[in-house]
Amino acid sequence: MRNRRSRRGRIRPYTFTGGRTRSRHPLLVQTLVSAADANTEAPSTLPPEAQRIHEMCRETRSVAEISAALKIPLGVTQVLLSDLADQGLVYIHPTITGHSPSENQVLERALRGLERLFQ
Q1: Which of 38, 45, 69, 97 is least surrounded, with the fewest CB atoms within 10 Å of its CB?
Q2: Could you tell me the CA-to-CA distances from 23 to 8, 19, 85 in Å, in that order?
Q3: Within 13 Å of residue 22, how many CA atoms lie on the same side as its CB?
Q4: Is 101 helix (H, G, I), strand (E, B) or coil?
């Protein structure tokens, strides 16, 4: 019995996404997300998990924060956030990854600033 429950617990969250495991948007664990309009209620047609995510996003939060708070696997959270973004219900903030020259410059300036603070 216990083994069935643990298996069910691992499989069940992916039913929220129709079995999809990849989001259509690049969502890293540190990516910040917020509700497109914090004063608007989530449509009642959304699954309960997506409604809870939308409610949490009334304040800007990271993907990791949302996943941990709702105890939903990270991949599932990313897919649900991607769906909400496609519907215009959440805004995915640009994430600095350090892969472009301008992002590298920002990161280098921040590092130099931190080094000056701690010297």
Answers
A1: 45
A2: 23, 12, 10
A3: 2
A4: helix
Answer yes or no: are the C-beta atoms of 76 and 16 closer than 8 Å.
yes
- Structure token pair of residue 82: 């991607």
pTM: 0.68
* Tens-digit pLDDT profile for residues 23-72: 677 888 888 999 999 888 888 998 888 999 999 999 999 999 999 999 88
Those residues whose C-beta lies under 8 Å from the C-beta of residue 55, and which sit 6 or more positions away, are: 42
Q: Six-digit token pair at 51?
A: 């409604």
Q: Which domains does the chain have, with CATH numbers?
A: 14-117 (1.10.10)
Q: Give the burial class of 96: count Cβ atoms within 10 A of its Cβ; 0-12 exposed, 13-18 middle, 19 or more buried.
A: middle
